[in-house]
TrEMBL record:
Residue ranges of every copy of the N-acetyltransferase domain listed in the record: 16-181
GO molecular function: acyltransferase activity, transferring groups other than amino-acyl groups
Lineage start: Eukaryota, Viridiplantae, Streptophyta, Embryophyta, Tracheophyta
Entry-linked PANTHER family: ACYL-COA N-ACYLTRANSFERASES (NAT) SUPERFAMILY PROTEIN, N-ACETYLTRANSFERASE HLS1-RELATED
Protein name, UniProt field: N-acetyltransferase domain-containing protein
Database matches in InterPro entries: Acyl_CoA_acyltransferase, GNAT_dom, Plant_NAT
Originating organism: Oryza meridionalis
Length: 399
């Protein structure tokens, strides 16, 4: 289905059609656009490339409703070619206030071929995706971009009418060649999907962007489980007993296997960095008992595990969170992932317990736009103007 037609701006009668993605014929063209577009801060030497493992829909297909659009140039010097893509999904999330939910849309994976930029193709892809969002009843649309990606920020806050909203950070930790020793002060308990859902709805149900269909997230094949950290020696009486009388401090988090959905690759690293990374791995293999912080090979396609649903309470909650991340590191090592990542809000109280290497992470900017008036609960008001809460729930289906 063609949803838009615009002048390609390249002369020679070229026009660009914006239409729904056709998996049967568009995959090679989409992969070519993805390879041509770097992901990460613009202007730097290091670039992060994404390998979608032959599934262009991998980052949205697990959402309740999703759509992918492509921009196709017709009549140009290269004939017919895919020159742009965008993905979107719609879900219902908490708006940061007790029992208030709103239907929101998330826009991601916007790419335009370098040869076709500055012709309005990206803006047109966004506008047509927003039309679908409105058809699906979404009241708000939001998008995440790197804070340092000035062209992307200008596109959304200028041409597309989005407002700067939240400033979370992606925290990344490498997976070493050895296991990390379990915490001596915390015990980690694995919860089944039913227990995890109950805990999340009771304790994190009002956190901003908490998905109403958390049960679908937890039961997804890519979800590796939910883990609860409590002070060592705490008697475990089941999740109902925990909720009735929680310990003085605790933390909870779930793991998501991004490794089986997509792979990443760091390109542009100097040879000296590569050699240094190899040296740390060799030393770690030779003497694993030393616990050398070895750097995994990130210069060829690698997978990651994502930690989501981080929450907790009590004066030692950050220490409990650190125990969870040590456990997550060891799960990732056994699963063949080379990094563990999470994304937390700017005011997240458990952030101090998240081990990470600053050089590997990124600072995000979430921008939001109200799509239409008259939607949702009147008590909410205009969410796009609400002050940030202490925490934010990052849906792993769209990371």
């Amino acid at each position: 289905m063609v949803v838009a037609c615009l002048d390609g701006g390249g002369g020679g009668g070229e026009v660009v059609l914006v239409r729904e993605f056709d998996g049967g014929r568009d995959r090679p063209g989409v992969e070519q656009v993805e390879r041509a577009c770097e992901v990460g801060p613009s202007g730097g030497k290091l670039c992060l490339f994404t390998d979608l493992l032959g599934d262009p829909l991998c980052r949205v297909r697990h959402s309740p409703a999703y759509l992918m659009l492509v921009a196709e140039a017709v009549g140009g010097p290269l004939g017919t070619e895919i020159v742009g893509v965008v993905r979107g999904c719609v879900k219902t999330v908490a708006c940061g206030r007790s029992q208030l939910f709103s239907k929101v849309a998330y826009l991601l994976g916007l790419r335009v071929s370098p040869r076709h930029r500055r012709r309005g193709i990206g803006r047109k892809l966004v506008e047509r995706m927003e039309e679908w969002f409105r058809e699906m009843g979404a009241e708000y649309a939001y998008v995440a971009t790197d804070r340092d990606n000035e062209p992307s920020v200008r596109l959304f806050t200028g041409a597309c009418g989005y407002a700067k909203f939240r400033t979370p950070s992606v925290l990344v930790h490498p997976v070493f060649g050895h296991d990390l020793a379990p915490s001596r002060r915390a015990a980690v308990v694995r919860l089944d999907a039913r227990e995890a859902e109950l805990l999340y709805r009771r304790r994190l149900g009002s956190v901003e962007f908490f998905p109403r269909d958390i049960d679908a997230v937890l039961s997804n094949a890519l979800s590796l489980g939910t883990f609860l950290a409590v002070p060592r020696g705490t008697r475990w009486r089941g999740v109902e007993g925990f909720l009735a009388s929680p310990p003085a401090s605790w933390a909870v988090a779930s793991l998501w296997n991004c490794k089986d959905a997509f792979r990443l690759e760091v390109r542009g690293a100097p040879r000296l960095w590569r050699a240094a990374a190899r040296a740390t791995r060799a030393a770690d293999r030779a003497a694993p008992w030393l616990g050398i912080p070895s750097i995994p090979n990130l210069f060829e396609p690698f997978g990651l595990h994502f930690v989501y649903g981080l929450g907790g309470g009590g004066p030692a909650a950050a220490r409990m969170a650190r125990a969870l991340f040590r456990h997550a590191h060891n799960v990732a090592r056994r699963g063949g992932a080379r990094v563990v990542a999470t994304e937390v809000g700017a005011c997240e109280p458990l952030r101090a317990g998240v081990p990470h290497w600053p050089r590997l992470g990124a600072d995000d900017l979430w921008c939001i736009k109200r799509l239409a008036d008259g939607y949702g609960d009147g008590a909410l008001g205009d969410w796009s103007k609400a002050p940030p809460g202490t925490s934010i729930f990052v849906d792993p289906r769209e990371f």
